[in-house]
């Protein structure tokens, strides 16, 4: 079963799927909405919500999805996938590097975070208190103003903590907008590093050879770099 919400003010299509997605659902419900939105706006933002009872696709739906993906490969500004299905998350992590637009996966409990992410401008720092650790996720190209706002948010999260473990999620980080932004980033890290116990970095494989040594030297703490599909290992390390 598939339900569609067209948020035309935000050029956003929200697709909620439960049970098994059939070719009939795909072609008679989803495709007309997508085509209508494309004809009006050109490019869209897409939110896909896979409910907990989602049971995959039939062959016709898979074939229709493949054709749609090829036909509209560059027609999305951003895609958010909301799911608790481990197999879906694993597929995303294997193919995220070749996606033509920023794409992110959220747990079902994080649906509000996904909707915020889909509508905000590229360039943001998300900070989450995960209980046993603090998660910092810079996204897009980061400028100095974004970092200053992130500093305030981090100070609020750490108000009652004397020490913390840190997850630095760099999967959607595209660098700094100028030297001043980079220097501000390092100054913020230096301000908080006395409270950091250990750091996990979630990033593309290319970071593994450089980043742990750099951060360990700068922060004077243990730093371990994990690849994009190793979130369970990250949580175990930070627990």
Structural summary, described in words:
The strands form two sheets. Strands 6, 7, 8, 9, 10 and 11 form a six-stranded mixed sheet that branches. A five-stranded mixed sheet has the order 1-2-3-4-5, with helices on both faces. It has two domains: 2-119, Transcription Regulator spoIIAA; 124-238, Transcription Regulator spoIIAA, CATH 3.30.750.24. It has 239 residues and is of the alpha/beta class. It is 40% helix and 28% strand. The protein has helices at 23-41, 59-71, 86-95, 111-119, 144-157, 179-192, 211-219, 231-238, and strands at 2-7, 12-17, 44-50, 76-82, 103-106, 124-129, 134-142, 164-169, 173-176, 196-202, 222-226. It contains eight helices and eleven strands. β3 (44-50), α2 (59-71) and β4 form a beta-alpha-beta unit. α1 (23-41) packs parallel to α2 and α5 (144-157) packs parallel to α6 (179-192). It is elongated and about 55 Å long.
């Amino acid at each position: 079963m598939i339900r569609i919400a067209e948020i035309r003010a935000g050029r956003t299509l929200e697709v909620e799927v439960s049970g098994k997605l059939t070719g009939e659902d795909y072609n008679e419900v989803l495709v007309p909405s997508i085509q209508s939105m494309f004809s009006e706006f050109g490019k869209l933002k897409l939110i896909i919500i896979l409910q907990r009872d989602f049971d995959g696709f039939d062959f016709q739906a898979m074939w229709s999805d493949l054709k749609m993906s090829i036909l509209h490969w560059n027609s999305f500004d951003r895609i958010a996938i909301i799911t608790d299905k481990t197999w879906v998350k694993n597929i995303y992590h294997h193919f995220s590097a070749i996606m033509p637009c920023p794409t992110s996966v959220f747990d079902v409990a994080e649906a509000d975070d996904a909707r915020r992410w889909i509508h905000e401008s590229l360039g943001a720092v998300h900070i989450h208190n995960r209980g046993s650790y603090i998660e910092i996720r810079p996204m897009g190209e980061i400028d100095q103003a974004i970092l200053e706002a992130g500093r305030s948010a981090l100070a609020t999260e750490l108000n009652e903590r004397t020490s913390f473990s840190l997850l630095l999620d760099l999967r959607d980080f595209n660098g700094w907008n100028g030297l001043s932004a980079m220097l501000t980033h390092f100054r913020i890290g230096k301000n908080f590093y006395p409270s950091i116990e250990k750091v996990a970095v979630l990033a593309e494989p290319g970071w593994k050879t450089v980043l742990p040594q750099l951060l360990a030297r700068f922060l004077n703490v243990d730093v371990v770099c994990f690849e994009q599909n190793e979130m369970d290992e990250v949580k175990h390390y930070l627990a």
